[in-house]
Design brief:
By secondary structure, this protein is of the alpha/beta class. The protein contains 15 helices and 14 strands. Pfam families: TPP_enzyme_C, TPP_enzyme_N.
Length: about 400
Amino acid sequence: MKLTGGQIVAKALKANGVDYVAGMPGEGTWALAESLLTADTDIPFIQVIQEQSAVHLADGYFRACGRSLAVLLPGTLGHSKALGGIACALADASAMLVISGEYSEGSDCRPAAPARITKEHVRVASIDQLPQALRRSFDTMFSGRVGPVSLDIPATVQIASIDVRLAPATLRATIEVQRVDQQVNVVALREGGASQSTEDGSGDVSPLKAQRPLAELRSVLESDAILVVGAGKLQALIREMFPVYESRSLCAASACMSGWAVPAAIGAKLAMPARQVVCAVGDGDFLQSMQEMAVCVMHSIPVVFVVFNNSGYVSLSDVQTPLLEQHRAGEFNLPDGKPYAPDFAGIARNFGLEAWRVEHASQLNPTFIKALNSKGPSLVEVITARGSRVN
């Protein structure tokens, strides 16, 4: 049987239990993308809007189920946009295979992903090396402390063909890669659960304090629901007061990386489609990756996004001394000093999501229920007060 390099990659991914490939096609990876999109490949390709989001999506997928995805990035430029996400995956022991391809061949080609931010970087020089390189990549990914592995497959190797008979066993890793049941960023259940006190969020007041919507959200979620948490003080607050009843139900990047939560939540829902998946994220964090709502709409992925809108990066502005009555770094303000915030609910509707804006406590419960019962992706924008002294 004559197979191209791209077809060998597709067969190896299937043999190792990879259910999705996330990424962006581009120069250097067109042949791989075409191989994945052929009718007999049976591996859905999830095209994201920005390269780093593909890495975060794969990260969230692994945290939710313990299985790996493949990420397809175009050449050196695509990798450069995703380096922070790959480093975050390495720090948190999240497994993924990051595949890229240089468009041009030459002795001056450099590895697209520095080895120090992956467990291993492998460059395939010829098609006959490809089956062994793929098998070795999956072995490396799951041996010892799991982590990302990068594989550079030049365009010439992707389009080359070879007469080869490849049974799945010849491509499959020697260790079990179907599921890794290590605990990744999971808060252990305490007796009786965490406190859900709403004493400083009681009453139908506006703007809300963050504790109240979190408590209301927990009250309507199923016990095995997955909460993907964004960066900043929201993460610390959830760890303090949000009960977790099942393993892999709380996903948070230890690097507190802004822009991680939205694509990671999409990955978690792909991994566990039968469970509720909610992304709790601040407005500044959400602005860095909200374009990935388009992925939810295009692929009918019903994630619920809860955006805590306090007009800025509160965790950044809080490091300044409270004695200074000046414009604080991290706040989003107009020239006259009034708080600025986009209409996130309106933006979400324009993307094709169902969306609601919540300003009062009495709106929380019925709105969360509507969002969770939505047949597609949805968003709840919750207007919250600024500053840790009120949040």
